[in-house]
Amino acid sequence: MAPMAATLADDAAINNVVAYINTLPDEPAPITVVGDIARGEKLYQTCAYCHGGDGQGIWSVNAPRLSGISDWYLVRQLNNFKSGVRGAHPEDTFGAQMSWMTTVLSDDAAINDVVAYINTL
Predict the structure, then answer these.
(1) Going by C-beta distance under 8 Å and a sequence separation of 6 or more, which residues neighbour residue 85?
(2) Could you say which DSSP state residue 32 is in?
(3) Which end of the chain has the least Cβ crowding within 10 Å, N or C?
(4) 3-class SS of residue 58
(5) Which CATH superfamily is domain 2-118 in?
(6) Alpha helix (H) ranges present in the chain?
């Protein structure tokens, strides 16, 4: 994304891109991940502090929206945080926080469960 963002010369260009994105339909991604939704709801309670009870994100804490995002992408990123692919850079304080938070997701089933719950938001 950084190279693409660098092509935006000023705030007006950024605002134009944002305005265009706001015209696109807001349709949830198709569901591809299955899991135990009830267990996922319990696991999500920790996530809700930053990402919101409805999964819409809380920008004041740099926590993005989760609801409507491709579930396969969420699974991949949670695995990346757990394995240290993401969140390991010393200057990535929010990534480090996410890496620590993924410790409550003990295995692949837990990740699938929480993502299956996020699919319901």
Answers:
(1) 79
(2) -
(3) N
(4) strand
(5) Cytochrome c-like domain (1.10.760.10)
(6) 2-5, 11-23, 37-51, 71-83, 93-101, 108-118
Cα 8 from Cα 104, distance rounded (Å): 39
CA distance from start to end of the chain: 27
At 58, phi and psi to the nearest 5?
A: -130, 100
How wide is the angle at C-alpha 90 spanned by C-alphas 89 and 93, nearest 5°? 90
Spell out the per-residue pLDDT of the chain, length 121, in tens.
778 888 999 999 999 999 999 999 888 889 999 999 999 999 999 999 999 999 999 999 999 999 999 999 999 999 999 999 998 898 988 888 899 999 999 999 999 999 999 999 9
Tally of CA atoms within 13 A in the half-sphere of 71 that contains its CB? 19
d(CA 47, CA 21): 26
Q: Where are the alpha helices (DSSP H) in 24-92?
A: 37-51, 71-83
* 3-class secondary-structure state, position 8: coil
Instruction: For residue 63, give the DSSP letter.
Output: B
**Which pair of structure tokens corresponds to residue 43?**
């696991």
